[in-house]
């Protein structure tokens, strides 16, 4: 059943916990002339979850007029094609990620395939991802930092970047509700059905910390993440601080390993992040992207010299 977390803002359950073992909430906002859905879940979400959740509110998928994708990850945009088939809603998403939002191949190549020496998708993993992504939908409204979403409610877009290159937060200035989606990740999140944790994910250290710091400067009473429960301002600020502390702990780990070993590969750092800093399952998308981000940062600071793999 939907929960009204602020006047006119309803939290909707999804099928994601059953499919991927993590909580995921979508939100629908009554904004006068617009009925706004924040994120679309994976391909199966609109029909399995969003439609019945909206029905409990006396609404349907065809009543939605605007779908906002916070960033181009499958659990935030995979439902776009089904939503397009069910109605006439326009789609709004970060201008910086339109390429990923409109092209599955490009997303798979650039996100999962960024470090082919360390990680590549198996055929099964590829088809699992493509199932969650469905067909892509052309984005109608390209969002930039400072934009206000259409409708009769002050919903402001803040580009946080970091977790994903164009990731946005949305602040409802009327109820002082800040939707942070995946940006404030703390030390990651435990899977519901195992002892492992999902590690944080970011692709650029400085962009991630700058975006987190921007969140701290905003005025809000409630923080709403995609993969957890809403929290008050103090708890939200603590989560952002914890996210920043995580970055420093990876910084320290990378510097220590580089000092003791003399050189450090993406694979070595990803494995260390994924085991030494917690039960994150070693090498995976999250730890590889973080390792790459921290090594890039070390080379930008002149503390390491990048050496690219030379094919034999
Ligand atoms: Zn994400």
Give me the secondary-structure topology.
Blueprint: E1 3-6, E2 9-12, H1 16-20, E3 26-31, E4 34-38, H2 45-56, E5 66-68, H3 74-77, H4 80-86, E6 90-94, H5 98-101, H6 104-112, H7 123-133, E7 141-143, E8 155-159, E9 168-172, E10 177-181, E11 189-190, E12 197-198, H8 205-216, E13 222-225, E14 231-232, H9 233-261, H10 266-276, H11 285-300
Parallel strand pairs: 4-5, 5-6, 6-7, 10-13
Antiparallel strand pairs: 1-2, 2-3, 3-4, 8-9, 9-10, 11-12, 13-14
Helix pairs in contact: 8-9, 9-11, 10-11
The chain binds zinc ion.
What does this structure look like?
- The protein is α/β, with parallel strands linked by helices and 312 residues long.
- It has a single domain (3-193, 201-237), classed as Metallo-beta-lactamase, Chain A (4-Layer Sandwich), CATH 3.60.15.10.
- The chain has eleven helices and 14 strands.
- The strands form three sheets. The chain has a seven-stranded mixed β-sheet with strand order 1-2-3-4-5-6-7. Strands 8-9-10-13-14 form a five-stranded mixed β-sheet.
- A hairpin with an 8-residue loop joins strand 8 and strand 9.
- Helix 8 packs antiparallel against helix 9 and helix 10 packs across helix 11 (285-300).
- The protein is globular, with a radius of gyration of 19 Å.
- 43% of the residues are buried.
- It binds zinc ion (ZN).
- Zinc ion binds at residues 71, 73, 163-164, 182.
Structural domain count? 1
Give the second-level CATH assignment, the architecture: 4-Layer Sandwich
Quick one: biggest sheet?
A: 7 strands, mixed
What number is the mean pLDDT? 96
Strand content: 15-25%
Extract low-pLDDT stretches: none
CA-atom Rg in angstroms = 19 Å
Report the bound ligands by name, code or SMILES. zinc ion
Q: Termini distance?
A: 57 Å
DSSP E strands, number: 14
Lateral strand order in the biggest sheet: 1-2-3-4-5-6-7
**The CATH homologous superfamily:** Ribonuclease Z/Hydroxyacylglutathione hydrolase-like
One letter per element, helices H and strands E, the order comes to: EEHEEHEHHEHHHEEEEEEHEEHHH
Pairing-aware structural class of the strands and helices?
A: alpha/beta
Secondary structure: helix percent: 25-40%
| CATH class wording | Alpha Beta
CATH topology: Metallo-beta-lactamase, Chain A
Number of helical segments with 4 or more residues: 11
Shape: globular
